[in-house]
Amino acid sequence: MNTPAPQPEPPGDRLLDRREYVGVTEVSGPIVALNGIHNVGYNELVEIGDGRGNIRLGMTLEVSEGAAIAQVFEGTSGLRLSSTRVRFRGEPLTITVSPEILGRAFDGLGRPADGSPEPSGEERDVNGLPVNPTARDYPRKFIQTGISAIDGMNTLVRGQKLPIFSGSGLPHRQIVAQITRQAKIVGEDTPFAVVFAGMGIKHDEAMFYLRSFEESGAMGRVVAYLSLADAPSVERRITPRAALTAAEYLAFDLGMHVLVILTDMTNYCEALREISTQRQEIPSRKGYPGYLYSDLASIYERAGMIIGRQGSITQVPVVSMPNDDISHPVPDLSGYITEGQIVLERDLDQRGIYPPIAGLPSLSRLMKDGIGEGMTRADHAHLASQLFAGYAQVKNIRALASVIGEEELSTLDQTYLQFGETFERKFLSQGLDEDRSIMETLDLGWEVLSVLPREELHRITEEEIRKYYGK
Amino acid sequence: MGERIVGTVKRVVGPVIEAQCSDDAEMLELVYVGEHRLIGEVVRMRQRSAWVQVYEDTTGLRPGAPVYGTGEPLSVELGPGLVGGIYDGVQRPLDVLRARTGDFISKGVHAPAIDRNTRWHFVPQVQVPCPAKGGMVIGTVRETDAILHKIMLAPSASGELIHIVPEGDYVVDDIVGRVRSGDGETDVALFQRWPVRVSRPYAERLPQSTPLITGQRVVDTLFPVARGGVVVVPGGFGTGKTMIQHALAKWCDADLVVYIGCGERGNEMTEVLTDFPKLIDPRTGKSLMDRTILIANTSNMPVAAREASIYTGITIAEYFRDMGYSVAVMADSTSRWAEALRELSGRMEEMPADEGFPAYLPTRLAEFYERAGMVKTLAGDEASITTIGAVSPPGGDFSEPVTQHTKRFIRTFWALDKQLANARHYPAISWRDSYSEYVDDVSEWWEKKTNGEWRSLRADILSIMQREARLERVVKLVGADVLPDSQRLVLDVAALFKNAFLQQNAYDKVDAFCVAEKQYLMLKVIMVYFEHASEAIARGTALATLNKLDVMRDMMQMKFECGNEDIPKLRDLLARVERAVREYTSTPA
Ligand SMILES: Nc1ncnc2c1ncn2[C@@H]1O[C@H](COP(=O)(O)OP(=O)(O)OP(=O)(O)O)[C@@H](O)[C@H]1O
Ligand SMILES: [Mg+2]
Predict the structure, then answer these.
(1) Residue A256's closest CA among A350, A331, A357, A188?
(2) Which residue's C-alpha comes closest to atom 12 of ligand 1?
C-alpha cells in the first residue's frame, strides 16, 4: 500500500550530513543559533548535547550559508554557548509506527513514556503530506455518540473534524470521555481506535482520560502522546503531529477507524506564539503569528477518509476559549478550518445542565450528508432545523422578558419560554453515562417540539406533523 | 523551455528563499529550486540577491542548492481539456498528480496542466489566407456538452493567417495554423500560454446591464449582481460563505464557472468533485461539471501556491471570456490569499502595514477585482467575468483590513450575519448591512420581466423591512402585545418575508434554486397580501382573523409547493390570497 511517508532525499555525503559541531552562537528562549556549519536543510532534525551526556531534540527553523536557527523542543535551560554539541541528522523528525503502538503511551516527541522499550517498526515523518483533494472520500457515515445535543442537532460523521470549544472549568473532559466511550456506527461493531494527544494539560487531567479509557476497556486500542504541563512548551509543536502520524498509520495502513482527541489546542498555539515571539516575527492578532491559520490547518486537515482505503480519521480537538471568548484567535481560526464546532456555554453549566452544549453557536457542517432516511430518520433535518429556530426565538424572548418581566409576555411568548425550559432539561440534559440511541434522541426532540403550537413549526412538513407531533 | 542555472540558495525561511544569483535572473521569472526542482517565482531582486517564493514544501532544502531559470514568467496553459479539471494553485492537475504519486501530494512532481494525448476534434472557422487579428477565432473544438472551445489567435497576433489545418482530430500541441507577420511566421497550436499576473486584453469595457441570475432570492431580488460585476461575501466562520459560493457555482446562469478554493478545506473541494458531475444545469440540461473548472489549493497545501491560485483562476476565466462567454469566478476565501501574501511578505522582512499585511495589499486586491468586468472582446463579442470573493474576517469583525480594503473595489456587499446563521436562517445574508450598487443597472432587465413592477415591489418590501427594524426596537422594550394591529401586520409580513422568501435551504430539492419569475411572483403574493390586509385592518378586521386564513399556510409553503415549473400554481395562489383577504375589505367587519 502507498504510504504517506515522503522519501528523504538521498544524502549526498553521509559524513557531512552527520557532522557534529561544538558551540552555538546564541541561545534565546527555546531557540539556538549556530554559525560555521554546512549542508544543513530547512526543517531538519537536530540533536543537541548539553555537555552532560543528555541529548535534546530540535528542528531547524531557518538555514542560510554557514548558519542556522533551530528550536530546541526540550528547552534550552542549562545549555552553554561553548560546550553545546549539535548534530544534524539530515532528516525530519520521525516517529515509529507499527501495530505495537496500540496500548502504549509516548512523550510529546513520540518516545516511549510508559517504561516499555521503543516499538519496532517503520519511521514516519511527523509532518505528513497533504492529502490530494481528488483522493478524499467525502464523509457521510453517522457516528452515534449517544449525546442528544450532538446526535440530534450537531451530528458527527466519520472522518469529520469537530472540535469542542470550552472554557476553564467547563466539563469538556467528561464530554470527550463520554464520546470516546459511546461513539459507534449503528449496525457495525468495530470499535474506534483512539489516538490521544495531550498538550500542556496537567497530570491529573491526563490521568482522568487514561483512566476513563481503561475503565471502558478501550486501553488496548488507545495510543497516547503526552506533552504535559511541565514538559517544555515547544515540544508541543510536535505532539499533535506525532499523534496524527500514528493515526494516519492506523487508519490508512491498518484500516482502522480512528478517533483523535487533541487537547488542548490553545496550549499548542501558545507554544507556537512563544517561538514566534522569540524570533521577533511580525505578529497578527494577540501576538499569534500570521501563519497560525496555515499551521492549524496542517493539523486539522489531517482528518478524513481516502478513496479505496478502509479506515478513517475523525478528530475531536479541544479548544479552550480564553475568557470564554469565541472570537479569540485560537477558537476563531479553528472554527474557520474545522467542520463545525461544539460550543460549551457557561450559563447552562451554572444552571446544572450537563452537557452544557450551547444551542445556537454549535454546528456540524457535515451533518446534512450523514442524516436522513436510511441513515438516521427522514425527519431528522427538519426536526433539527426547527429546534434551532425555536431555541433562537427562546433566546430573544428571554432577552425581552428580562426587560419587561415574564408576566408581561404574550401567551405565545410564554409558551416559547416553556419550550426553552423543556428543551434544556429534557433534551440537552443527560447523565454522564446515559447513552441514548438516535431514535430516542429524535423522539425526545419531538416531545420537546410538541410544547409549541403547531402553527409555529414552519420548518416541518404537514406529513411530519401528522406523524410525530404530540405523539 | 531552455534551462540554466541562475543562482544558488543562500537562505531558506519557510516558503521563501533568498538566492545568490547571476545577472540574468529576471523579476517574476519562473524558477526551479534544488534537486527536487521545486517550482518557484522570483518576487524580489536586490543587488545579487533574488527572493524566490517556492510553491512547494521546502523541508530539507539546503543552502548551496541550485536555482534553475526558465526565462518565462509563471504562466498557465490555456486550451481544450481545462473544463471539468481540478488544479492546484500553480495549475498542476491534481488528478494526474494522484495517478502519479498516490493519495498524498509529494513535492517536485511536474505534469502538464493540459493533457497532451487527448485528441480533440478541430473544426476550422476561417479560410486562409485571411488577415490575422489578436483574439480571432480560427476554429472550434467541442470540449464538453456545455462548452464549445474556441481556438483563438494570441492577443498580440497580427499579419496574415496563411495556414490552417483541415477539420480533424488533433492533440493540443499540434500546429493547427500559421500566422505571417512583419517578424516572421508563428505557429498556432490548439493551446497557448499566458502569464498569470498579467490580465488578458480586450477591446473595450462595456456598461453592465444584465443581472447574473443566481437562483438565490435574497441575492437576485434584494442585492443583485450584474454580469461583469464584483461581489464580496464577508462572514465569520460557519456563516455560509462557502454554501453561497457553491450555490452560485451550481445555479448561476454563467456559461462557465471557475471555482477557486483558496486556502480552505479539502472536503469542500471533494464535495464539488462528487456532487457537480451528478447535478444537471437547469438551463442547458448538461452536467454541471461540464462548465466548471476547479482550482484547489487547500489550507494545508503550500502557502505560496495559495497566493498564486487566484491569479491562475482569473487568467483561466479571462481566456474563456475572450471566447465570448459569461464567466463567474468564485474565490473562497480571499482572506486566506491575503494571509498568504502577509506570510510571504513577513518572511521577506518587508515593512508591515495594518495587522501585519503588506502595504501593497489594497493594490493587489484592486488588481484582482479589476480583472472582472463586462467587455467587448478582441473578437468583438460581449462577454463578462463576474467575481464573487469570500472574506473571512478574524472574529467576524468587518472592520479588519481585508474586508475594508476589499469594500473599496467591489460594488455588491453580501454581509453574512452570525445571528441569522445561529438561528439557521440561511442564506444568512443580512438585509440590513448588505447592499448592491447594481440595482439601477439591472432594473430594466427585471422591469421587462415583471410588467414594470420589480422596482416598486422591491422598494415596498424594503420599506416594510425598515419599518420592522424600527418597530423591533419598541418591541424589545415593551413587547409586541402593545402594538396596534396595523403595526403588528408589518411585523408579521416582515416575518413572512424572512421565512417564506429570504430563507432558502440549499439542500432542498425544490427550493435550492429559484427562477426569476418565481421570485417575482412570490414577492408579489406577499405584497398583495400586505396591501389587502392593511386595508382590512383599517376597516376593523382583527389581525388574528386574518392569521387564521388558509392562505397563510400556503404562503408559508409556497417555495416548496410551487416548483420552478409550477408558475401557474403561484398565479393561482396570488388570486386566492386576493380573494381571501378581499372578503374583509369589501364588507366592513
Ligand atoms: N443556504 C443554506 N442552506 C442550508 N444550510 C446552510 C446554508 N448556508 C449555510 N448553511 C449551513 O451553514 C454551515 C456553514 O456554512 P459554510 O460552510 O458555507 O460557512 P463558511 O462561512 O464558509 O465558514 P468558513 O469560513 O468556516 O469556511 C453549512 O455547513 C450549513 O450547515
Ligand atoms: Mg467556507
Answers:
(1) A188
(2) B240
Instruction: Answer yes or no: do A282 and B352 touch at CB < 8 A.
Output: yes
Alpha-carbon distances of B121 from B82, B126, B140, B167, rounded to whole Å:
15, 16, 8, 7
Atom of ligand 1 nearest to the CA of A365: 29
**pLDDT at residue B585, rounded to an integer:** 74
Q: What number of helices (H) and strands (E) belong to chain A? A: 14, 19
As a whole number of angstroms, the distance between CA B287 and CA A432 comes to: 49
CB A259 within 8 A of CB A314: yes
Model confidence, pTM: 0.94
Q: How many residues does chain A have?
A: 471
d(CA A24, CA A40): 15
Q: Report the C-alpha gap between B341 and B348 in whole angstroms.
A: 11
Out of B102, B265, B300, name the one closest to residue A298 (CB).
B300
Please report which confidence band the pLDDT of residue B3 belongs to, taking 50, 70 and 90 as the band edges. Answer: low
Stated as kind and residue range, the H or E segment containing A210 is: helix A203-215
Domain segments of chain B: what residues? 4-74, 120-192, 204-437, 450-585
Grid cell locating A422: 423543556
Question: What are the pocket residues of ligand 1 if the criterion is a CB atom closer than 6 Å to any ligand atom?
Answer: A 336, 365; B 235, 237-243, 264, 392, 426-427, 504-507
- A95-369 architecture in CATH? 3-Layer(aba) Sandwich (3.40)
Answer whether CATH 3.30.390.50 is correct for domain B204-437.
no
Which fold, A20-91? Thrombin, subunit H (2.40.10)
Kindly tell me if the per-residue pLDDT of A195 is higher than 70: yes
Residue B573: name the closest of B561, B587, B585, B586 by CA.
B561
